Amino acid sequence: MEERPATAIERMARWACGLRPGDVPAPVRRVARNCLIDTLGVALAGSATPVARRARGVLADIGAVGEAQLLGSAARLAAPCAAAANATAAHALDFDDNCYAGVVHGSAVIVPAALAVAQSVGASGAALIEAIVAGSEAEYALGAGMTMALYERGWWTTAVLGPVGASVAAARLYGLDARATRAAIGIALAGTGGAKAAFGTDAKPVLAGRAAEAGVTAALMARAGVSGPLDAVEHPRGFAGLFNGGVREDEAFATLGRTWRLLEPGIDVKRIPVCLSSHAAVDVVDELARTHGVEPGEIVHIACDVPPVVIANLIYDLPANRQQAQFSMPFAIAATLLFGEVRLRHLDDAVLADPALARLLPRISMQTGERWDEAARRAAPEGAHVTLLLRDGRRLEGFRAFPRGAAADPLSDQALAAKFLDCAASVTTPAAAAGLLDRLGRIETLADVTCLLPLCDET
C-alpha cells in the first residue's frame, strides 16, 4: 500500500518537535531575540491604552490565577488569559513588527503566547527563544503557502494565522510530542478567523489577543488528549479551500528548517506607530522634504502611487480618532511634515484637532497606477512612488520599495533599544526599563523567565 504524503500540519509538527538548539543558526536566534525585545517594548506602551486596560480587566475577571504576568498589572493569570491580555497590549498601538510571509503581525501573537507558557512552566530564556523560532517559522510557512491571496481576499491574517504560531510555540514549551503537536495545530487552525473589517476599531488588537489565547488553549487541549484534524489545510472544506479559494503552495512546508523565514523575507520592525502600509511613502516624503528644505506651507499636493493593498488598508483620509489616524496615509505624512517624526504622543485628539494638520490632510492623496503589476507588487508589496507639487512650481519625486526598519533596511541595535526605552517610559521608570532591556539582551543566559518582568515592583 502506497504511503500517503504528509499533510501540512504533520510537516509543521514533525519539524517543530524535531528542532534542536543546535539547529537554529545564530542569525535566526538574533532576529528572534529582537522580536522579543520589540514586542515587549510596544506591549508595555500598549498596556496603558484603554483597550488593553479593558481587555485586561475582563480577562482578570474570567481567568484563573496562574504564573504568567499581565503587563501593566501586578496580577498573574493562567497562560491562555495572560497571553490574550499581553497580545492585545502588543497590538494596541499598531507599533509591532510584520512579516510578508503571510503579511502578518506574527510576533504580537507568538511572543505573548510563548512568554505566558514559559512563565507558567518555569522555562529558560533559551527555551523561550527556541519556542518563538518554532512558532514563527511554522506560522510563516503557512503564510507563505497561502501566498498573498489570503490577505488580498480580505482576511486579517494576524488573527487567522496567529493561532497556529501560538499553538506551536506553546506545544514546544509544554513538551508535547509530534502527535499532540499535530492535534494542537489542527485544533487551532480549524477554529481560526479574522476579518479586516476590524481595522480602525478595538476589535483589531482584541483579535490579536484572542489568537494568542486560542493557540495556547489548543496546546493545552492537545496535552489533555483532545484530537484535531490532520488535514485542516488540505481538506476540501478545510483552511485553503474555505479561506483561500483552494490556493496553496505545499513547497512552503517542505522547506522548514532550510528556509528560515525569520531571515527571508525577514521581519519588518516599525519605526513609527502607524500601519506599515504608510511607511514607505512617509520615508519618501521625509527624504524629499529634508533634501530640498520643503516647509509644509509650500505644499500644494502630495500624490502617492501605491499598490492596491495600501489603499485597502489605509481607509481614513480624514481620521477622527487615534485608531483611524493609524490607518490614514494623509495623517502619517502630514504629521511627519509638521513634527519631524510620528511619535506615540502624536496619536492624540489634540493633535488631530491641530489646524495646521487639518490644512495638510486634504492635500495628500493615494492612487494605484499601472506600475503596480504582479511583479512590482511582489518586489515592493507596500512600496510607494510619491510626487510633491510645490507653490513655486517645483515637482519633486521619489520611490521606496521598503521603508526604514524593514528587513531590507533594518533598524540598528541602538535604534531598536531607543524604541524599546521610549515605549517602556510610558509605564515604568528609566531604571526599570533599562534593567529589562539588559535582561532581554542576554535572554538565552537566563535559567528561568518567571520573573523576567518585575516592572510593577520597580515603579
Automatic annotation (TrEMBL):
GO molecular function: lyase activity
MmgE/PrpD C-terminal domain: residues covered: 273-432
Ranges for domain MmgE/PrpD N-terminal: 10-246
Protein origin, superkingdom: Bacteria
Family annotation (Pfam families): MmgE_PrpD_C, MmgE_PrpD_N
Family recorded in the similarity comment: Belongs to the PrpD family.
Protein name, per record: 2-methylcitrate dehydratase
Species name: Starkeya nomas
Lineage, opening ranks: Bacteria, Pseudomonadati, Pseudomonadota, Alphaproteobacteria, Hyphomicrobiales
